[in-house]
């Protein structure tokens, strides 16, 4: 049985929630274990692979290496906060259309990193996309399709508000 921790009030995907955990608990564990948000994945657990990426105040962050105490008062967005099966986010739709997933384990991190990147740079060059995703690892080797997916999202008229213009 888990020992009682401290109460943290968080804002995740636009909703307020409370969790009781130790302050140093990785945000990833809170999201997955306490809030049942399984979009972010546990890969390396060391902040190196990117599978756990979420947005913290719009910036891509590695949730496995992000203590929950730092998440208070910040807007956390997970993959679940982007789109749904019925209504995928334009970036998710681009990943589907480009068939960018093989095993799919890295895709959370790719999509969330791409979201933060395209919000900041809606019309990137391919080399800029490659640089932005440089530290997100994919063991299946589908980086070519992943870069194509991000370029496709950008070509479709990506805008900061999340809507495609076509
Ligand atoms: Fe967080 Fe690898 S699981 S960076």
Describe this structure in words.
The chain has helices at 27-34, 90-97, 107-120, 126-132, 143-155, and strands at 6-12, 15-21, 53-56, 59-62, 75-77. It has 166 residues and is α+β, with helices and mostly antiparallel strands. It folds into 2 domains: 6-81, Ubiquitin-like (UB roll), CATH 3.10.20; 90-156, DNA polymerase, domain 1, CATH 1.10.150.120. The chain has a 5-stranded mixed beta sheet with strand order 2-1-5-3-4, with helices on both faces. β1 and β2 (15-21) form a beta hairpin. α2 packs across α5 (143-155). The longest helix is centred in the C-terminal third of the chain and has 14 residues, at 107-120. The structure holds FE2/S2 (inorganic) cluster.
User: Largest sheet, if any?
Assistant: 5 strands, mixed
Radius of gyration, in Å, reads 16 Å
The appropriate CATH architecture of the largest domain is Roll
User: Which bin fits the share of residues in helices?
Assistant: 25-40%
Q: Looking at this structure, what is the CATH superfamily of the largest domain?
A: Beta-grasp domain
Task: Give the secondary structure arrangement, pairings included.
Blueprint: E1 6-12, E2 15-21, H1 27-34, E3 53-56, E4 59-62, E5 75-77, H2 90-97, H3 107-120, H4 126-132, H5 143-155
Parallel strand pairs: 1-5
Antiparallel strand pairs: 1-2, 3-4, 3-5
Helix pairs in contact: 2-5
The chain binds FE2/S2 (inorganic) cluster.
């Amino acid at each position: 049985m888990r020992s009682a921790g401290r109460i943290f009030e968080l804002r995740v995907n636009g909703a307020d929630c409370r969790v009781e955990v130790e302050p140093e608990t990785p945000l990833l564990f809170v999201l997955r274990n306490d809030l049942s948000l399984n979009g972010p994945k546990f890969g390396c657990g060391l902040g190196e692979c990117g599978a756990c990426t979420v947005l913290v105040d719009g910036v891509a962050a590695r949730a496995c290496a992000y203590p929950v105490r730092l998440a208070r008062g910040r807007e956390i967005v997970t993959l679940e906060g982007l789109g749904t099966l019925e209504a995928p986010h334009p970036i998710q739709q681009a990943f589907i259309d480009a068939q960018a997933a093989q095993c799919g384990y890295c895709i959370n991190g790719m999509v969330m990193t791409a979201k933060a990147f395209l919000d900041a740079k809606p019309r990137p060059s391919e080399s800029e996309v490659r640089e932005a995703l440089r530290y997100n690892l994919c063991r299946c080797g589908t980086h070519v399709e992943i870069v194509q997916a991000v370029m496709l999202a950008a070509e479709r008229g990506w805008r900061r508000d999340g809507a495609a213009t076509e």
